[in-house]
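Appendix B. Chain record.
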Amino acid sequence: MKYINFLLAILIISVIVGCQTNVKETDENQSQNNSDWRSREIVYKIPEMESIIIKEDIGYKKHGDSSLMLDLYLPAKTDKQKLPAVVLVPGFHTKRIDLTNTGQYTSWSKLIAGSGLIAVTYETVEPTLDINDLINFLRDKSDSLNIDKDQINLWSCSGNVPTALTYILNNKFDYLKCGVLYYGLMFSEGFEHLPYWDSVALSMDFMHY
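Structure tokens predicted for this chain:
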């Protein structure tokens, strides 16, 4: 239960990101802030965020002549204890916009790790396929990664949510303990706006239905 409460707290904290942006922006610096959104971090910080361990560029899947990579954010002291993992799920080709290295995602991940869990960010080319391979990799390599393979949790927001939601609905496994799907796309009854969102998704390289 405490892990579920923590993930819900992350959702609430993320709202503060937008509040910080709106309060601090003025007419004079708004243009500059709009151009450096990739560096913005969450407002809420805890001391443990400064001492976390980051393991970068772990290959989880072959793609052509290279590999897709993941990054792990771990608490400073794990004592080789296996910990629940929180996977931050992207819903589009990350070679176009690398969410894993934006301030928003790195600071979320540091907060998760500073609070005693393991955060996972990753590259993706085919979101609906790659999330399956990623989670299979995390569970298969759980011993070396210090991950509790029976405590996998998903975090996703905005246009990325359909990828996480599709995985959750199609994989009703006991190891999926929690999903935070924050301000995701919502469709009206009858899906009359679906063609419009399909065109938007295609233009932005989001997962297409």
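Further analysis of this model is presented in Appendix C.
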